[in-house]
Structures are given as structure tokens and as C-alpha cells.
Amino acid sequence: MNIESIGTANIIDLALKYKVKKLIYISTSGVYGKFEIEKSVTENFNVSPVSSYAIAKRFNEIYLQSISKKYPIKTSL
Fold first, then answer.
1. How far apart, in Å, are the Cα atoms of 67 and each of 8, 42, 53, 74, 77?
2. Among candidates 76, 55, 53, which has minimal Cα distance to 65?
3. Can you list the alpha helix ranges (DSSP code H) found in 1-77?
């Protein structure tokens, strides 16, 4: 969890330093918990991380959303 979050924080710091206009963050379906394969998952699903990796990914999603509100950088999750 620590490596994932520190790595994302480092990327954000560099993006702000070099005035990057947009960051694209790749998360994991694990942030939505367990679901039936037959059903498609959308961003509207309830969040229920199933592992420390998924928790770290969800933390980073929230962190990036807050960064995009505070600084002139767009994010896509």
C-alpha cells in the first residue's frame, strides 16, 4: 500500500512541478469488491475494496480527485 501511494504522490508532485495538464490514472476492478463476471461494472458501483492493493488504488483515486479540485490539473480515473 505504501509503495503505491508514495509512487502516485511522486507522480503528482512532478506533474505539478512541470505543469502537466492532465493525468490518467489506471485503477483496478478490485476497488468495487467481488461481483458477478456476467454483470458489467461501472463507476456507479458501490466501492468495497477486497485487498490492500485495491484500498491503495481507491485512496489514490480520492487523492487525485482532490488534487484536480485544488490545482489546475485534470485527472481521468
1. 12, 23, 21, 9, 13
2. 76
3. 2-17, 52-70
Biggest distance spanned by C-alpha atoms of the chain:
43
Thinking of the domain 2-76, which architecture would CATH place it in? 3-Layer(aba) Sandwich (3.40)
The answer to whether 57 touches 27, Cβ cutoff 8 Å, is yes
Domain ranges of the chain: 2-76
Task: Judge if pTM exceeds 0.70.
Answer: yes
CA angle centred on 45, ends 6 and 73, rounded to 5° = 40
Q: Binning pLDDT at 50, 70 and 90, where does residue 37 land? A: low
Neighbours of 51 (CB within 10 A): 13
Q: Bridge-partner residues for 23, per DSSP?
A: 75
